[in-house]
Amino acid sequence: MIESYTLYKDKLKDEYYETFDKIELYCVAQNMDYNSQQEFLMELTDVFLTAQGEGKAVSQIVGNSLERFCKNFCSGIGLKSHLLEFADVLKRLGWIVLVFCFIDLIRSSRPFWEIKSNGMPLLLGTILGILISSILGIVFKRLMFRWKKVSMKLYYVVLFISTICFVSLSVLLSEKYSLTVYNWIVIMIAGVYLLIYYIARRLFFNKPRENREKIKPSDLVIEQMPESLMMSYVKKNDRRLKRGKEPMTPEEYTQKIRKDNNMERLLNRGIWLIYLAIVSGITIIVSFDSTVMDTIIFACLCGGIWFSLYYFLVVRLSMKAANYRKQILDECEEQDITILEYCKAEKK
């Protein structure tokens, strides 16, 4: 598995971050395959972090023309990369098909081989999605060097809105045009494709990478905690000054962090009740039109998905960060110092 550059991107500051964001957007707009994109941007992250640490200007890396740098940087991307990206799109589509077919299987009382579905929404959605993604790539590549506000955030906002539009259009068109197919045929085609895809990836496209020290997202959050707390203090006071308010003192900021952290730890402990309520509510609604066994299967499937979200988003990230923040605050209290004094000492 390729290590993601996103674990290190937030270490970039100011002009380095803004420049990297533009280059990242250009790579995304190129519709290159995931592995190539991760490899290219991971190498660039290493270069940028090294140059930033040495105090160099970003222009010493990218030159006077960012557009020319981006074109040269992605010049090695050819037809093979675009085909691999298309294969990845079909892979995601295959899994979506299998999930929907499985849901139909649970909800239907007919034998498996008699279940049919309208495949038109999925077919139209896929075609429109590929077209819109390609068009957005072309448009953003033309605008990003001419309009400073074009960024990855804007790209994802436009992509989200476009997705809602083409999904709605697909549903409307599917009411007029239908494509009825047996679910078992769809499952067989999707299953065979996914099997071939993963075998081919394993045998031909998983190139060995040079060894790199692996770092977990949760460990990176802890590593960057002192710096992020200091940056948060500066940003909060900047906002207060703009509103005409007095800036917070280090002591007031320490108390605010303690209060916010206690609230976060309390929410982390109780959020599983929200997940349980959501799963229970959905299961009760499904049970009205399903057999007991189908309801049990659905509850297990839904519960497994929500538990995975709870574990990775709350337990591994938020809860670990909140506990480490409490540890810092306890040490500050023992040493009778502010959290800013602690963070400055950690950075040395």
Features:
mainly alpha, globular, 77% helix, 348 residues, 14 helices, single chain, two-stranded antiparallel ribbon
Number of helices: 14
Shape: globular
Q: By helix and strand content, what is the structural category?
A: mainly alpha
Instruction: Give the proportion of residues in helices.
Output: over 70%
Task: Compute the average pLDDT.
Answer: 78
- Count of β-strands: 2
Could you give the distance between the termini? 34 Å
Strand order in space, largest sheet: 1-2
Order of helices and strands: HHHHHHEHHEHHHHHH
Major sheet size, sense and barrel closure: 2 strands, antiparallel
Q: What proportion of the residues form beta strands (DSSP E)?
A: under 5%
Please mark out the parts with pLDDT under 50 across 5 or more consecutive residues, or reply none. 208-213
Rounded to the nearest angstrom, the radius of gyration is 25 Å
Overview of this protein structure:
The longest helix has 44 residues, at 292-335. The protein has a two-stranded antiparallel ribbon. It has helices spanning 6-9, 14-29, 34-53, 59-62, 66-73, 79-107, 120-143, 152-176, 183-205, 217-223, 225-242, 250-287, 292-335, 339-347, and strands spanning 116-118, 180-182. It has 348 residues and is mainly alpha-helical. The protein contains 14 helices and two strands; from the N terminus they run ααααααβααβαααααα. The protein is 77% helix and 2% strand. Residues 208-213 have low confidence and may be disordered.
